[in-house]
What we know:
This protein is mainly beta.
Amino acid sequence: MKTWVMGLLLMFAGTATFAQGNSRLGKISGSVIDADDQSPVMEATVQVLSLPDSTMVTGQSTDLNGRFSINVRPGNYALKISFIGYTSDVRRVSITKSKPNLNIGTVKMHMDAVMLEAATVVAQAPEVTAVADTLVYNSSAYRVPEGSALEELVKKLPGAEVDENGKITINGKEITKIMIDGKEFFADDPNIAMKNLPVNIIDKVRAYDKQSDMARVTGIEDGEEETVLDLSVKPGMNHGFFGNVDGAYGTEDRYSAKLLANYFKDKKQFTVIGSANNVNDNSFPGGGGGFRRQENGLTAVKMLGANFATENDKFKSEGSINFNYKDADQISKQSSETFVSTESSSFKNAMDHTRNKTTNLTADAFMEWRPDTMTTLIFRPRIRYGKTDNSNGQNSYTFDQDPVYSTDELFNTDDITSLVPEANIVNSVLKNSLSKSDDITAGGSVIINRRLNSEGRNITFRGRYNYTNSSSEQFSLSETEYFQQTDEERFERLNRYINTPTKNSEYNARLTYSEPIFKGGFLQFGYNFQYSHSTTDRSTYDMPEEWTLDGNTSGGTLNTDLSKNATYNYYNHQVDVSFRWIREKMRFNIGMSFQPQCSTLSYSQGDYQVDTVRNVFNFTPTLDFRYRFSKTSQLRIRYRGRSSQPDMIDLLPISDNTDPLNVTVGNPGLKPTFTNHLRVEYNIFKTETQRGMFSFFSFQNVLNDISNRRIYNSETGGYTTMPENINGNWNLFGIVGSNIALRDKRFTINTFTRANYQNMVSYISDNQTTTDADKNTTKRLSLGERLRGTFRNDWWELSLNGSLDYTHSRNSYQTSNNMDTYQFSYGASTNVRLPWNMTISTDISQNSRRGYTDASMNRDELIWNAQIAQDFLKGNAATVSIQFYDILKNQSNISRTISAAVRQDTEYNAIYSYCMVHFIYRLNLFGGKQGQMGGPGFRGGHGPHGPRRF
């Protein structure tokens, strides 16, 4: 006991001594910017030198925003700020006990003209650097085809992936927002920037986790941070007007047109973007080999939007408005196997044709006002209108044994029994449907923060409101033939019309308080009240036999057994307690949230009516630890636990057989679920060797996960589904990437290794009751490797690349369905800039699949794309190019999904082989010295090094 007491006394004494020691230190702070374009100068060297001998006392480098803050003892010093290519700034500073904190303001650094004139070699920019928890990619280090948009650049970034739906991930984390020079660009739609911003205006791309507005002003981590890409515009292009006009036309009646107009001056930004195309927004050919992800179907897109941002010392405002119309025509062929017992499966082949038309109009704004140094007000209003008009036609067969034949062969025959015995056919379905919806959403949030002293004491209020009014209509005609039923039950025809209006309102108020308890240590308290109210009234009508899908709703009979009405009220009280500890290299947050909840539901369906109340208690533990080994190396560990309740409708003991082949039943015995999520990140970058490594690991498991217990009817091919708690679902994911510059900096090697292990559990049975013996577990290991080697000089880039994706799947139900599949690719890409302003870009790759049971999936595809571009007019302001996609006509669009219950292979229609003629005109009117250097068609370099030489 004495030992413990003595240890605690020594610890507190040490802490007090440390705090007192630090209290005698003063602080010198400020920021460094480029004198011409006002952009931050990051990684500038800041040194505190003793007088009169100029011996270095301490120092550091500026951060991403050009800021620095150095602790130093009282005394007289010389402060020296330097960066290659700039004239050094040296000034005398004084720190006294009475005035220990000195802010020197903004230091404007001027270019060293002598140094730039004497430079004869242009250095190769490193591909990626790491500053604390931010990855910084240099745009000039990645060559993309002339005229490319941001998406083509992002695809080349180490650790980046862009899927067929435009979802962007960097090191396994989804990018939810694009920013330009720290300002939001079209709010929460990254695709607008990805598809429309030209690469030639971008200097650097920064990837980092951006705190929520609430966390930023209070310092309290709330788990709502988002991963963003922050783009910096090339020096000289943020002082004036610049824009692009971009048009193309090609074979198969393909077209593409874009308009971009920007006005940047000081801290003001204004952008107008418009585009229209029917090529699925495909990127330019020649960007790189490997599997090129295709968007499913044929899609025509039209969009028009405007974005603005402005800022002064006290007020900052940003906002955007955009209109988007999308017409997607998608045809798919599917073959699937659903595991229904340890000995049998259900097999399904389907042809599907969908036409989806969506219209969206969104407007949002962000305003931040700082009336004084202690007060912050933030307001975010948002309004959105959406409309959909979709049609679908599907034809499918279900079998109790593998039909052996392909989907094409099954649907190209006039008599299915000529290929498959009738005893093995369970059902055939022919269904046509239409759906229409309209919805409007309006809402906003306001934050008011007041700092009560300079030590970290503050109080914050946040209010939120959201209102949604939506309505949907569904029209469907279906004909089902049950091959194993009696003649009286063999055929079923359903003509249905469903109308569903829904309204939802949500209110949220939060109050937080932060109290410093010692230097760098804070206790934080929060209270949050949330109330939501929603009403849904679904009316289902049985339509007459002669009814057609023409939008006519007359003549129907209300089906009271399938019509339902629900009114839902939700009350949530949340109390947060957390501790935050900050040191020079370390940040530590730990906290707990307690959430008593009350929900009420009034529900009616047919003769069933119920009014129910549920009171539950949830809790959420959180932990966030960061340690910065250096400016370019950091470790971060995050944990978040979350308990959640099942949907109240899932708890009702009612059955819904709107679709006779997919009947749902409620389960009053559902328990709450609890999710554990652990994330670990580590990165290191060595500036002197331009070598770096980044890694990301994630583990997630769900206790009492809500899965679906499915009972299969072997006579009809239908399922009865009931939500059920199940344990055993967990997921482990990890990635490691590296960027290696060789001694000759023109050569770089990038690697990206990915591993994912999933344990997926579900209940499946063909019996009327299921037991734990019917629990099926699928274990899937996915391994991926990307390797790219690049040679780059001023006029030529050559990349050799290869990739391998391996999936090892094991099924506890049927070992015959265990699979080992491979998807591998190897190839090359090159970009050559010739002396007469002509560029040639091309990529070629061999893409292969192996290990699939369907032989048609095991393919080899040699894919070749190319582009020839010619710059002309004064300052190379115009470009004309010819683009060739899939020259050898080998590309396909096939995907496979695997879960605990099903394996499905799908092939979609897509845009494959075609040719386009492309014209781009750039108008650049810049002010300032750097802008005049670039002139029209500016393709300058980065920072103080000036234009890149060719």
